[in-house]
Design brief:
Length: 312
């Protein structure tokens, strides 16, 4: 079933229904198949995309640039050193100018209100490439990867281990709850998801038939996991907390012993990357046959292309 998403922004997956997310995932799978056959469609020929980056990136920048360029479009990279993003010029005025010159805008940075202002004032689709609160394009790629491995994500158990408050953990919570995927956060009490997001996603989970749980008990939390997922222990902008965070999360490293605690030989490992091998994940696990991190990284491109095709 197709949905008319033309003109829609993607700021957080809270704004998309399960049916709309399903449409985007189905389109992502199809685009990946087309890419494998070498098909060239040039659907963005004559279109332009502004890429605003406050935070550095490998996967997000490369995924947006190649996805847009492969379809014949022209992406323009703009760092905070290149334009007056909320400095000499207000974010509202920047949005108005960019909206007159570009067909769509991607923003990767710190505050969620920045991407929301861009969407409010630009008049074109705006995509959240990562903020401190949400990372929706990553969550789409993650669920796509789970579906590739298991055929479906519905009824599977995804366990996030580590800093359960970060943007990736929060976005996974939203998409899993909406799409019928069981989701568990295994984290110290001070790094567990906020109550507001848990309450909101509890409603999504009730509608989809999935379950949400939060614990600091590692063996209990990872038991029966189909996916063990982790992320860096110190997010960008939190570098001053490195020593404290590493000490707190040391027991939560995804190791071969933790993978064995799932009781399932087919459990896979996922990570949004970049990974600090030896911190949140051992070298042996991320380089093992169970690791799907490279498929996951590639799928950023296909899901981002799907979002742009659907909305532009």
């Amino acid at each position: 079933m197709a949905f008319n998403l033309k003109g829609r922004s993607l700021l957080t997956l809270k704004d998309y229904s399960p049916e709309e997310i399903r449409f985007l995932l189905d389109l992502s799978h199809e685009l990946k198949r087309q890419r494998r056959t070498g098909a060239v469609t040039q659907l963005f020929l004559g279109r332009t995309l502004a890429l605003l980056f406050e935070k550095r990136s490998t996967r997000t920048r490369c995924a947006f640039e190649t996805a847009f360029g492969e379809e014949g479009g022209h992406p323009v990279f703009l760092s905070s050193q290149d334009i007056q993003l909320g400095a000499k010029e207000s974010i509202e005025d920047t949005a108005r100018v960019l909206g007159r010159m570009f067909d769509a805008i991607q923003f990767r940075g710190f505050e969620q209100k920045m991407v929301e202002k861009l969407a409010e004032y630009s008049g074109v689709p705006v995509y959240n490439g990562l903020t401190d609160l949400y990372h929706p394009t990553q969550a789409l790629a993650d669920l796509m990867t789970v579906e590739e491995v298991f055929g479906t994500a519905k009824g599977r158990k995804v366990v996030f281990v580590g800093d359960g408050r970060n943007n990736v953990a929060r976005s996974l919570l939203i998409i899993c709850a909406k799409m019928g995927t069981d989701y568990t956060v295994v984290a110290p009490a001070s790094l567990q998801p906020d109550k507001e997001t848990l309450q909101l996603c509890g409603g999504y989970a009730e509608a989809s038939g999935s379950s949400i749980s939060v614990t600091d008990d590692i063996p209990k939390g990872v038991k029966d996991a189909d996916v063990i997922y982790t992320d860096v222990w110190v997010s960008m902008g939190e570098e001053e907390k490195s020593k404290e965070r590493l000490e707190m999360l040391k027991p939560y490293q995804v190791s071969e012993d933790m993978m064995a605690l799932t009781g399932k030989r087919e459990t896979i490992f996922m990570h949004c990357l970049p990974a600090v091998k030896g911190n949140e994940v051992s070298f042996e696990v991320i380089e093992s046959a169970a690791s799907r991190v490279w498929d996951e990284a590639e799928n950023r491109k296909h899901t981002i292309k799907a979002v742009m095709l659907a909305t532009i």
